[in-house]
Amino acid sequence: MKATLDHVGIAVADLRDALAFYRDALGLEIEAPEEVASQRVRAHFVPAGGAALELLEATADDSPIAKYVAKRGPGLHHITLRVDDINAALERLKSRGVRLIDETPRPGAHGSLVAFVHPASAHGVLVELKQA
């Protein structure tokens, strides 16, 4: 399974302040927001070299990002690894006893398929697998 860093997800409590920091203070370009209905979030991608930052804004009080921010505050939420075949990657992980949040892929941003690996199996890090 070949994996490449695609992006780092950052949960934000105050989108205006987050955009001001990344756009105005750091001078990074911000892509147009995209609604990810399956996660009840609005994603703002910020290209940064060969990967990107993904600023995540909750669009519903019960979304995973809203719950995360309420419990832990804003900050690093997940890392995303791009794979060529997400189903094969999930099967490989399952065969190795890795705990998965998603046993099957679901729709993600940019028309991709995504699945999450539980932090308990990834040394405390929420890992998202993505197939473009």
Tell me what the structure shows.
By secondary structure, this protein is an alpha+beta fold. Helices cover 23% and strands 37% of the residues. The protein is built from 3 helices and 8 strands; from the N terminus they run βαβββαβαβββ. Strands 2-3-4-1-5-8-7-6 form an 8-stranded mixed sheet. β6 and β7 (113-117) form a beta hairpin. The longest helix is centred in the N-terminal third of the chain and has 11 residues, at 15-25. The two termini are 15 Å apart.
Summarize this, please?
This protein has helices spanning 15-25, 64-72, 86-95; strands at 3-11, 34-36, 41-48, 51-58, 75-83, 106-107, 113-117, 127-131. It is an alpha+beta fold and 132 residues long.
Beta content comes to: 35-45%
Low-confidence stretches: none
- Backbone shape: globular
Proportion of helical residues = 10-25%
Individual helix count: 3
| N- and C-termini, Cα separation | 15 Å
| Strands, count | 8
Determine the structural class based on helices, strands and strand pairing: alpha+beta
**Rg, alpha carbons:** 15 Å
Return the string of H and E elements: EHEEEHEHEEE
Provide the fold topology.
Elements: E1 3-11, H1 15-25, E2 34-36, E3 41-48, E4 51-58, H2 64-72, E5 75-83, H3 86-95, E6 106-107, E7 113-117, E8 127-131
Parallel strand pairs: 1-4, 5-8
Antiparallel strand pairs: 1-5, 2-3, 3-4, 6-7, 7-8
